[in-house]
């Protein structure tokens, strides 16, 4: 980016800013990617934090002392609900005539509307270019997402809005795109003729970890599937774009989302299951809660490429281990081989492991060394591993450069809510929630969901 710019971070004392944003901004600074950054204004409402105390927090966040980096920062005590606070910010920004403004909302979603309204009003008197970055969750249901989009449209153009999903910045997720469209051997088999089904999982071995105030109102379906996993699905299933640019890529993703079969309310038990880990109420000191800590959903994409291929999406907490992955399971070899072999070869697999490390695995069948031609084949893997580059660094650089390819467009966010809304409505009126043991793979109902189709859940490392 050749133009000068200013970054304004709302929620500058929060966990997101301290654990992700400041380290990422410092990494970009050390790589000389912030040469045109004139100022970084961080806001927070803690009464006992002044500029000096803020710099101590910043130093702890980036794990070093760097006066030249610190000199970029101003800290402003800021109550998001008070109009006079925005007037003070307006006066500060009026000193910058040429810079582009980047506003980052690292705040709870309940504050989004207030910030957008106040920013939008005072920016009417500014000729400066501007961008606004909005974290998840973007709404709590379809209606609230539509309402928030309508508000944004009043004050900002769509090309100024960056709805962030940090999963899209992860190296392995972006390599789905690279593997498919850079290699004809993969794109040629990326369809219903060869692929049996696809599993997209985000499994955690930890619990809520201090996020109860947010999590108990949201649950696993909203927290992970509605945004992260459905976004990954759209990348896995999209058609090749005519051009590598933000419009064409996002156009292809929305076509996928529009092709997903509607789940009718009465059919929800056939397509979705939930669960809550044993001890959730005790761990979080709750008297009662119907919030799911596990969710699994089966989706179908009704187009020529994917007709009849199920996509299984699942996420959960307090499970056996942490694994975020996409597993492409190919169809079994024709049954005639069972006549000449003692056992059937396993299905071929392409696996993308996103966490806890980056890994791509191609698992296929070969004759074992020293074995006979007709002995059972063994599974052989080829792995690609790469550095675990922080997703927020990729996304932050895209924001600065104005590339929206890895950000969610208005129609995408609303369509993803539309997909899960019948499930949310059904679960809201159903008091029965299965309980699963901590350290397991989730509720037995999730196993039944996939076994009814003659399949089983897969894991990249066994």
TrEMBL record:
Q: Which UniProt keywords apply?
A: Carbohydrate metabolism, Glucose metabolism, NADP, Oxidoreductase
Q: Where does NADP(+) bind?
A: 45, 79-80, 136
Pathway assigned in UniProt: Carbohydrate degradation; pentose phosphate pathway; D-ribulose 5-phosphate from D-glucose 6-phosphate (oxidative stage): step 1/3
What GO cellular component entries does it have?
cytosol
Reactions catalysed, semicolon-separated, are: D-glucose 6-phosphate + NADP(+) = 6-phospho-D-glucono-1,5-lactone + NADPH + H(+)
Residues binding substrate are 166, 170, 204, 223, 317, 322
Name the domain of life: Bacteria
Query: In which family does this protein belong, per the annotation?
Result: Belongs to the glucose-6-phosphate dehydrogenase family.
Q: Report the PANTHER family cross-referenced here.
A: GLUCOSE-6-PHOSPHATE 1-DEHYDROGENASE, GLUCOSE-6-PHOSPHATE 1-DEHYDROGENASE G6PD
Q: What does this protein do?
A: Catalyzes the oxidation of glucose 6-phosphate to 6-phosphogluconolactone.
Name of the protein: Glucose-6-phosphate 1-dehydrogenase
Which species? Dictyoglomus turgidum (strain DSM 6724 / Z-1310)
């Amino acid at each position: 980016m050749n133009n000068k710019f200013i970054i304004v971070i709302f929620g500058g004392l929060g966990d997101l800013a301290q654990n992700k944003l400041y380290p990422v901004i410092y990494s970009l600074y050390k790589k000389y990617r912030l040469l045109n950054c004139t100022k970084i204004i961080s806001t927070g409402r803690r009464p006992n934090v002044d500029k000096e105390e803020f710099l101590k927090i910043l130093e702890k966040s980036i794990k070093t002392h760097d006066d030249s980096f610190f000199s970029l920062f101003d800290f402003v005590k800021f109550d998001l609900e008070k109009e006079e606070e925005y007037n003070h910010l307006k006066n500060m920004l009026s000193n910058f005539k040429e810079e582009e403004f980047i506003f980052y909302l690292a705040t709870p979603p309940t504050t989004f509307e207030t910030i957008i309204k106040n920013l939008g009003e005072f920016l009417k008197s500014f000729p400066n270019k501007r961008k606004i970055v909005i974290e998840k969750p973007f709404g709590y249901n379809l209606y609230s997402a539509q309402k928030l989009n309508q508000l944004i449209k009043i004050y900002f153009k769509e090309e100024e809005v960056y709805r962030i999903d940090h999963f899209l910045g992860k190296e392995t997720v972006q390599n789905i795109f690279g593997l498919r469209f850079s290699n004809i051997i993969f794109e040629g088999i990326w369809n219903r003729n060869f692929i049996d089904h696809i599993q997209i999982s985000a499994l955690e071995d930890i619990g809520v970890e201090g996020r109860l105030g947010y999590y108990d109102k949201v649950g696993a379906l909203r927290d992970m599937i509605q945004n992260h996993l459905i976004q990954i699905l759209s990348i896995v299933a999209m058609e090749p774009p005519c051009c590598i640019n933000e419009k064409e890529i996002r156009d292809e993703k929305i076509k996928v989302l529009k092709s997903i079969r509607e789940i009718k309310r009465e059919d929800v038990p056939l397509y979705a299951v939930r669960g809550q880990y044993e001890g959730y109420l005790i761990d979080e000191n709750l008297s009662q809660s119907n919030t799911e800590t596990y969710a699994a959903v089966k989706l179908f994409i009704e187009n020529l490429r994917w007709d009849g291929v199920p996509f299984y999406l699942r996420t959960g907490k307090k499970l056996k281990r942490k694994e975020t992955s996409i597993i492409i399971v190919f169809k079994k070899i024709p049954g005639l081989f069972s006549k000449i072999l003692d056992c059937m070869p396993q299905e071929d697999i392409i696996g993308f492991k996103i966490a806890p490390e980056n890994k791509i695995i191609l698992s296929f069948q070969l004759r074992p060394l020293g074995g006979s031609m007709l002995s059972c084949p063994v599974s052989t893997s080829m792995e690609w591993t790469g550095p675990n580059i922080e997703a927020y660094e990729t996304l932050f650089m895209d924001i600065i450069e104005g590339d929206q390819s890895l950000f969610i467009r208005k129609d995408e966010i609303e369509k993803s809510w539309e997909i899960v809304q019948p499930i949310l409505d059904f679960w809201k009126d159903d008091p029965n929630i299965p309980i699963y043991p901590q350290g397991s793979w989730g509720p037995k109902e999730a196993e039944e969901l996939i076994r009814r189709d003659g399949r089983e859940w897969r894991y990249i490392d066994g």
